[in-house]
User: Which sequence fits this backbone?
């Protein structure tokens, strides 16, 4: 379980596995959007930013970060093979966008937070709804205070609304906090019922287009309802732009897009959810936003997807990651970023600013040490018994001309050839059970008789590491994933030699 991640996230999100570098003016291909300036001009000390970057780099699993001060990007970086232009799965950070859609629908008079939930879905209501279910309001969905003790199921065949309404409601709505991703799905369903549009279509002209956010995708339920609580994918700068929009209380380029009163209510403490003063998960909950220490608030998603807004410091931080320790990321911001934010402009040593630029430009996820290929094992084919990943056979080939090794896998009757750069990431495409076919970046290296392939799925938090330990009469594959909702290390597979693959 992720450190700092409420256990109740695990069940509902478990089904959602299918989901260059720059700084300031040199954004490494980031789409035009927020202005860039030197950090000192916005009162941000470069030495403090260096501390932030160094600490995040030591914190395993960062994929990107962008720091905005007073509306200007003062630092940004992507850990290769992640890049500015590729959308990243947001997981529960999606919830904050769903809340904003509800706010827009309220502003348009389509619904009210005081509306009871049940009348929106007369065809899915239980035959004899309980008094607590009849009392459940839209506001209770927003505050994660539905009165349910456990998360409702999400049947794979559909019927998510019916499953939610049929789930027990033992507590009076509004009195019991339960982090409840299906409650966010219900908000999505209500917006769609009230407006006739799914969340993506509804938000595109009202929020995404005015903010310059393009290419957003949102996974849907079997009935075509945007998932709401998860499923949204955006670029890092889109997250930062949304954060700046929240900092400006719903105003953008002179236009009030979402009422200021809604942003204030959504990001305020609506529900008490704990009492640990050292935990950023115990500071209260708003309308699909978490309250933080230091007067901040945030949207966040599993494995380290963050939109952190610091109103008192006029700052926003956007982060994507694949980490098991989400609280650790926030601790880094409080420890290193807060002291770097000054009320007046800062005059920095040019050499320090240059070092910050270089540091941001060199960020990369670690690759296996290239080593020297063990020629005795190159080209040998090995077969595996039946296994959960459905890996049937493996061969490692060398391609010295292209400076890579090629991991050749037979998976469920299909062939996957994944080029692994030697000490660098090579871009390709692959499908590894249970992840569907999508872009990947891979690196590999030899250490004695062991070849290790590291395969990154840059649209997701996931990085799969596959060490193959060869012997004269077999190979052992011990596959592991950096993060996950269940086990991340699998039982080793033993392969036996077969006739040459090719």
Assistant:
């Amino acid at each position: 379980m992720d450190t700092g991640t409420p256990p109740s996230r695990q069940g509902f999100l478990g089904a959602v596995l299918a989901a260059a570098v720059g700084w300031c003016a040199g954004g490494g291909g980031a789409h035009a959007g927020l202005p860039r300036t030197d950090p000192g001009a916005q009162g941000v000390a470069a030495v403090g930013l260096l501390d932030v970057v160094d600490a995040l780099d030591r914190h395993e699993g960062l994929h990107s970060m962008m720091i905005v001060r007073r509306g200007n990007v003062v630092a940004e970086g992507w850990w290769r093979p992640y890049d500015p232009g590729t959308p990243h799965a947001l997981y529960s950070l999606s919830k904050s966008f769903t809340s904003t859609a509800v706010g827009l629908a309220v502003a348009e008079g389509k619904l009210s937070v005081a509306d009871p939930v049940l009348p929106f879905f007369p065809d899915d209501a239980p035959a004899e709804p309980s008094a607590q279910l009849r009392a459940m309001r839209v506001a209770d969905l927003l505050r994660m205070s539905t009165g349910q003790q456990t998360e409702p199921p999400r049947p794979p065949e559909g019927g998510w609304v019916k499953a939610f309404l049929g789930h027990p409601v033992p507590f009076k709505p509004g009195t019991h906090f339960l982090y409840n991703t299906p409650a966010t799905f219900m908000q999505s369903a209500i917006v769609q019922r009230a407006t006739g549009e799914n969340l993506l279509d509804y938000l595109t002209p009202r929020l995404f287009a005015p903010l310059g956010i393009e290419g957003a995708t949102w996974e849907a339920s079997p009935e075509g309802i945007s998932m709401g609580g998860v499923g949204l994918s955006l670029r890092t700068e889109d997250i930062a732009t949304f954060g700046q929009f929240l900092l400006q209380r719903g105003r953008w380029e002179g236009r009030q897009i979402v009422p200021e009163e809604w942003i204030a209510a959504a990001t305020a403490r609506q529900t008490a959810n704990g009492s640990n003063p050292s935990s950023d998960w115990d500071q209260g909950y708003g309308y699909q936003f978490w309250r933080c220490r230091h007067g901040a608030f945030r949207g966040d998603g599993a494995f380290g997807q963050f939109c952190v807004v610091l109103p008192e410091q006029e700052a926003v931080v956007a982060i994507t990651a694949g980490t098991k320790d989400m609280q650790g990321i926030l601790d880094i911001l409080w420890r290193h970023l807060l002291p770097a934010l000054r009320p007046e402009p800062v005059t920095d040593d040019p050499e320090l600013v240059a070092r910050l630029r270089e540091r941001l430009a060199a960020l990369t996820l670690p690759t296996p040490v290239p080593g020297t290929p063990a020629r005795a094992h190159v080209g040998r084919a090995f077969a595996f018994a039946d296994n959960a990943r459905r890996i049937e056979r493996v061969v490692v080939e060398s391609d010295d001309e292209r400076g890579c090794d090629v991991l050749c896998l037979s998976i469920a009757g299909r062939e996957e050839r994944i080029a692994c750069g030697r000490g660098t990431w090579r871009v390709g495409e692959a499908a590894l059970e249970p992840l569907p076919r999508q872009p990947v970046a891979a690196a590999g290296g030899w250490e004695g008789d062991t070849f290790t392939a590291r395969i990154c799925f840059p649209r997701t938090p996931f990085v799969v590491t596959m060490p193959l330990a060869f012997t004269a009469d077999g190979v052992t594959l011990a596959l592991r994933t950096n993060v996950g909702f269940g086990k991340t290390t699998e039982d080793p597979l033993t392969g036996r030699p077969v006739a040459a693959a090719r």
Notes: Residues 381-498 form a domain with the Lipocalin fold (CATH 2.40.128.20). DSSP finds twelve helices and 22 strands in the chain. The chain has two domains: 9-103+191-361, 381-498.
